[in-house]
Amino acid sequence: MNYRHRVNGAVLDLPVGKAVCVGRNYAAHAKELNNPIPTEPVLFIKPNTALVALGEQLSIPTQLGECHIETEICILIGDKITRGCDEAQAEAAIGGVGVALDLTLRGLQQQLKDKSLPWEKAKAFDGACPISEFVSLDKVADLQQLGIQLRHNSHMQQNGNSADMLTPVVPLLLYISQFFTLIPGDVVLTGTPAGVGPLAVGDQLEISLVDHVYCQTQVCAAG
Ligand code: ZN
Questions:
Q1: Which range marks the domain in which residue 23 is found?
Q2: Residue 14 CB coordination number (10 Å)
Q3: Given a cut of 90, is residue 37 above it in pLDDT?
Q4: Nearest to 146 by CA among 103, 90, 190, 92
């Protein structure tokens, strides 16, 4: 694996772990896919083979139906968060904040949902979780006042703010840790705001954690 976590411009000596993701953490996104607003976070996992750097080229599968982009605030875990941790411990365990893409083979996901099967093939494939560089928490004034944006061929497609999360970041980390211990090098994808949609080879994307992280990338076909 070539991917390494980077914080404030430096490569970290951390393993690359799992990505724990939350579905439907913004009410407007649940609505756009005709899903009910959940009463508890919906969790799923991408293995570390899904993690790649969000760089100049974004590789997507082209033989498996539509690949949708979901732009999400991503939390890097710097210290262990396990059952029994409190909010202060969970916040202190955050190693950085960045952006990740939850790439989703939407047609395949719908087929799997229709058969009540797990979503892994649609969301956890190789390269399904491109991740930006992170900034450390001391550079972020308020975790729940963070803007996240996707410009797709210069058109503003996603423009969200962590203020609109149904479950805010720290309670989400505590909820996750009831089921999955978070260890240094894991990441948490905190859900997508509204505006998800398909990607096509050649598309130009600009992705930002407003005032903190900015990435430009071009969509290409996975080899
Ligand atoms: Zn997502």
A1: 6-55+64-147+158-199
A2: 17
A3: no
A4: 190
